[in-house]
Amino acid sequence: MPRTSKNKFEIINDEIHISKEGWPLIGLTTYREDYYEELTSKTWTLTKANSETDDKGYLSNKTLGLLHRYIVAKWYGQDVLDTMTQKGFVVDHLNNNHTDCRISNLEFLKKAYNTAKGQAFDVDSKMMEHHIAVNIFKDFSTGCYQITIGCNDDIVGETKDGKKYHITAIMLLYDCDYSIVVNDAENILRIYETEGRIDVTKTYACDVKVRKAIDIQLTEEEKNGAVVIRDGIPYLILGTGNTFLNSVHFEKGWQPPEKK
């Protein structure tokens, strides 16, 4: 008789949500039918469950090992994981959340670069997120990366004819090595912190999309709020310090212009 896992598993869209009594968090990974039964038959624990910080470590099982490496092996092949490990690469969590093991959040990175990312981008992005929320994603369906920037500060753009508009998000597409994407993300943060501007022309992005803010007339009372509702649709009120974006999700299937 197979052993029963002590975890609770829930499939939401294409994600597996993993929880356990006493955990202060939900673990995430990508659903796929071929490994779901094996994954959910095991009990997953946190490697630093008793840590007094928010970092509770990695999801681990005595038989299957670390969840992020297990998932990478399933998607890329165990031979690829073994080869990359021998070459000095580790599996990086793009958003630095070690319990987010979705395949879109995992990528190979040289150990030295991974250490540098942990000391620079991962720290700076957390520190700056109430100004600009910068996140990195990998779209496994295209093999490309995306940097998304959620604009919590009041960021203003300008059209070619001089008309100004407010920006809620900027999305950058990359078809290059992951380490270059990480470097661009850190530079975006550094330039904004020191100069107060976002310059996408200085990046290695092969395509850029800008989401303009929706022009909504607010009452004096609404201006001090966090959310406003129009026609049954809720809208966040950004730039007031009352509410913040912590992440803008990537656009699945977005491809470089030359591949369309």
UniProtKB/TrEMBL annotation:
Any single Pfam family the record assigns to this protein: HNH_3
Quote the SUPFAM superfamilies the UniProt record gives. His-Me finger endonucleases
Q: Sorted alphabetically, which keywords does the UniProt record give? A: Endonuclease, Hydrolase, Nuclease
- Does the keyword field hold Nuclease? yes
Q: In this protein, which residues make up the domain named HNH nuclease?
A: 87-115
Gene3D superfamilies with a match to the protein in the record: 3.90.75.20
Q: Which GO terms describe its molecular function?
A: endonuclease activity
Entry protein name: HNH endonuclease
Q: Which organism is it from?
A: Blautia massiliensis
